[in-house]
Model the fold of this input.
Amino acid sequence: MKFFLHPQAQEELEQTLLFYKTQQAGLEKRFIEALEDAINRVCRNPLLYRKVDNQVRKCRLLHFPYALIFRQRVDQIEIIAVMHLRKQPGYWQSRK
Done:
């Protein structure tokens, strides 16, 4: 199944990568690997993940305090947010 990032989720991803790049050499690459793993898991079986609101679900990234907030569309997955788990939990709800 295909996926696409909401424009604000794309911005969150870019900001997160910049942050991890300044923290430790190669850490942003490990984040990208964890993100790709989560996206692959979601695309394979989106219904496996817990609903957090109506048709919106959450998939945690391995080894990082982040989650993908997403919903399944007819032929693709819409990633609504790349959410830090310890900051403003419901901020993404205006994107629905």
